[in-house]
Amino acid sequence: MADIFDVIADATRRDILGVLKDRHAEEGHSSGEISVSEIVSTLELSQPTVSKHLKVLRDAGLVSVREEGQHRYYRLDSEPLEAVEDWIIPFVATDLDTVGFGVDLADETREFASTVGKVFADTSHRVTTAVERVTPRKWRRD
User: Hey, CA dihedral for 40, 53, 72, 4, is it positive or negative?
Assistant: First the structure.
């Protein structure tokens, strides 16, 4: 199984997760399900592209699927994102007493986590910039 950070590093997959989150939060959609065609329409992406990314999300346990005939209905499963949340909290909770939460990290661990975070952010920025340079304007979602 792919590392959760690798899975959510892709902007298209994050967009799909956002659509699923929005559907889950909408009134009148108690199941939180959405069809592949609705995702395609919302994000203005091709069906094969959406299906490819949904497979990655499904393999990572971030979405569940219900089949009905030839139609597939997806729903967000946010439980795997708890690992991401647990990793991020020490970075964003600077004003909280982290010792009180049992997150007393050694200096080496803090330095390592800081370095990984900076490298991840830098790499993400570089990839996004490179994709924007090579993606034709008509395909961008500006």
Answer: negative
Query: Based on the domain organization, do 44 and 101 belong to the same domain?
Result: no
Q: Which domain holds residue 40?
A: 4-76
Query: What residues contact residue 61 under an 8 Å CB cut-off, 6+ apart?
Result: 1, 77, 79, 80
Out of 27, 48, 76, a domain closes at 76
Q: Give me the tens of pLDDT residue by residue for the chain, a chain 142 residues long.
A: 568 888 999 999 999 999 999 888 876 666 788 999 999 999 999 999 999 999 999 999 999 999 989 989 999 998 888 888 888 888 877 655 555 554 555 667 777 777 888 888 778 778 877 777 777 666 655 5
Q: d(Cα 111, Cα 54) in Å, to the nearest integer? A: 35
